[in-house]
Design a protein that fits this description.
With 597 residues, the chain is α/β, with parallel strands linked by helices. 34% of the residues lie in helices and 18% in strands. It has 20 helices and 24 strands. The strands form seven sheets. An eight-stranded parallel barrel has the order 1-2-5-11-12-13-14-17. A five-stranded antiparallel sheet has the order 18-19-20-24-22, with helices on one face. α12 links the parallel β11 and β12 (310-313). α3 (44-61) runs parallel beside α11 (248-264). It is globular and about 70 Å long. It starts with 12 loop residues before the first helix and ends with a strand. The protein binds alpha-D-glucopyranose. Residues 129-130, 132, 169, 236, 272-273, 314, 381-382 line the site of alpha-D-glucopyranose.
């Protein structure tokens, strides 16, 4: 068995078969597909040969620049102190891929080290759930540019030391995708690519255990298809058809798509809707152990083509369902996962002016294995789902927070759909939910939340426009198709006029983002985070975070209330230099200190 490193880009099948990563993947795949007769008669060795072919041809066509990157990057290349990730819709950001290349300098100026453009592969025509209904995994949305433009964006990003992550929408395709069309046409190669039930009664039986994702705009989990007179499994919108991962060919096809994309220069994948891959009747069909085996196998196999490719789990679930996405030390699964429980708890702490639940959430988040990292964030293109805190707070509290952010207080948010009897989620841009344009303290709240995610262990994520305090966009209300899809409220167009020539408040926010980068960039080593439980003496209003490095410590005090608090006692006899804020913590104030050892 070889060590897992394949240096040459010409590899014979024996070298692949003897590779430790490959063998790890095959072990897992054997557990799932070894006995499977779905898709075609069972022939596991044929399946293995197809994997080998994909690996061989992809490795052979990997270009010299990418091979060099593979060699030069260490395993944690995507994590550099003080550097953030940045997520945006390409059309809303700069219009298209080519013009986005021109904005790499802008992104560098706020310390971005990783970009995550939201779906940019070819979507279905018309409503595509913001691009999450992919019609072709090997071409780009023509409105954004060509696959060559994407290749150039990756190459230029690499020249600027920026990595590129894109969505691989692995749970479903658009109903227009060629796989779906061939399946509908009874092409034997595409047999069992999707899941269809014969009768309404069967649908009811399955749905008893399932939970709607979009109960108002897309109720139910199945959609009747006239062509085959059956009910197709559609967890999300009726035009997003769930793939059938019980069929090994689906695994293969998705792997082939990833292999193609890493050779374009893509450095990582956001595994969209990852919890939903494996489905079983009578269960909620989320987070199944086979889902984890599939993801781990993809990762191991990709190591033979593009060894430094990273995976980001999009698992917006309770912490106990998110943690397994990191895998174990032996079977590592995702490099990154959204820290959605802490994100939700941050908004809860702000609403309550109390950090009790936030502290619990952070402590839970420490239970991740060492090899994985949190992607810490405040906002993204989706809604804030209060249910993420269901294990940490009573249900009336979830309802209270939901009401708070869509009520008459300082936040300017909207309540979005949720399953019956559950608290509605929240939509809105960070600046609006913090009340930046509603009262004098909004700016402090925004700074508090963002500095906090920089002080946490992991990678901070900036949602496009937050760095200049972009407002909500209500124009979707006039769009017949999208008026009920409130998530468009927080998907505004980037305002370059404001970015280039910011009025006072926006300028203050932008400068603040630049300062965050420079404060945390000084911590050049990879650190370790400690949460000091000092909130009791401050009536649960303040959290203290400590990042410990070999040569220095960074201490961050975050006041989640509008009370003034003096923290001088906290640093008695210590040689701390204040690098941000004041010993008198003002309303929603943050103080950051450093001590060299
Ligand atoms: C993910 C995306 C969300 C999308 C859904 C279906 O949750 O973040 O925007 O609607 O997947 O693809």
């Amino acid at each position: 068995m070889n060590s897992g490193k394949l240096q040459s880009n010409n590899i014979n099948s024996d070298a692949i078969k003897n590779n430790s990563n490959f063998q790890k993947a095959i072990l897992l795949l054997n557990e799932i597909y070894g006995e499977s007769t779905i898709g075609r008669s069972n022939n596991f060795s044929e399946f293995i040969n197809s994997l080998i072919e994909i690996i061989q041809s992809s490795k052979e066509s990997r270009n010299a620049n990418l091979l060099e990157l593979d060699l030069n990057r260490d395993d944690y290349w995507y994590k550099t102190a003080g550097r953030s990730a940045y997520t945006m819709y390409i059309d809303k950001f700069k219009g298209n891929l080519q013009s986005s290349i021109e904005s790499l300098d802008y992104l560098k100026s706020i310390g971005v080290g990783l970009i995550h453009p939201l779906p940019l592969l070819k979507p279905r025509e018309g409503n595509s759930d913001g691009g999450f209904a992919v019609a072709d995994f090997t071409s780009t949305d023509p409105k954004l540019g060509s696959i060559n433009d994407l290749e150039e964006l990756c190459a230029q990003s690499h020249n600027n030391d920026i990595g590129v992550i894109i969505d691989i929408v692995c749970n479903h395709t658009a109903q227009e995708h060629i796989w779906a069309q061939k399946w509908l046409a009874h092409d034997p190669e595409y047999k069992d690519f999707y899941i269809a039930l014969d009768t309404e009664d069967e649908v009811k039986e399955y749905e008893l255990a399932l939970q709607d994702v979009f109960p108002d705009t897309a109720p139910g989990s199945f959609t009747y298809c006239d062509d085959i007179q059956k009910y197709v499994w559609t967890t999300f919108y009726p035009f997003q058809w769930d793939l059938n991962y019980k069929n090994p060919k689906v695994f293969l096809k998705m792997f082939e798509a990833m292999a193609f994309l890493v050779n374009i220069g893509i450095d990582g994948f956001r595994l969209d809707s990852a919890p939903f891959l494996w489905k079983t009747k009578g269960t909620i069909s989320r987070n199944h152990e086979n889902t984890h085996k599939i993801v781990t196998a993809w990762r191991e196999l990709l190591k033979l083509i593009a060894p430094k490719t990273i995976f980001l789990a999009e698992a917006i679930e309770s912490i106990n369902d998110v943690l397994p996405f990191f895998g174990t030390e032996e079977n590592q699964e995702c490099n990154l996962a959204y820290n959605n429980v802490v994100m939700t708890a941050l908004w809860a702490a702000l609403a309550d002016e109390n950090v009790t639940i936030l502290e619990k959430a952070i402590l839970q988040s420490f239970n991740k294995p060492k090899h994985g990292d949190w992607l810490n964030y405040i906002r993204c293109h989706d809604d804030i789902i209060w249910l993420a805190l269901k294990d940490l707070a009573p249900s009336f509290k979830l309802q209270e927070w939901s009401d708070f952010y869509s009520g008459n207080n300082y936040p300017n948010g909207l309540a979005f759909q949720a399953p019956e009897g559950m608290p509605k989620s929240t939509c809105g841009m960070a600046a609006e939910l913090c009340g930046v344009y509603n009262d004098d303290l909004g700016l402090n709240r925004l700074k508090l939340l963002y500095s906090f995610i920089y002080a946490l262990d992991g990678i901070p994520l900036i949602y496009m426009g937050d760095e200049i305090g972009l407002k909500n966009d209500t124009s979707f209300l006039n769009d017949k198709e999208n008026k009920d899809e409130l998530r468009w409220l927080h998907r505004p167009k980037m305002d370059w006029e404001v970015a280039n020539n910011p009025p006072k408040t926006n300028a203050e926010i932008f400068d603040f983002f630049k300062s965050l980068n420079s404060i945390f960039a000084k911590t050049s080593e990879k650190g370790k985070l400690l949460l000091s439980l000092c909130n009791k003496q401050y009536q649960n209003k303040i959290l203290r975070l400590e990042q410990i490095y070999e040569n220095q410590e960074i201490l961050c005090f975050a006041n989640f209330s509008r009370d003034m608090v003096n923290i001088a006692n906290e640093i008695i006899n210590e040689k701390y230099e204040i690098i941000y804020g004041d010993l008198n913590l003002g309303e929603y104030g943050v103080t950051i200190m450093r001590r060299f050892k």
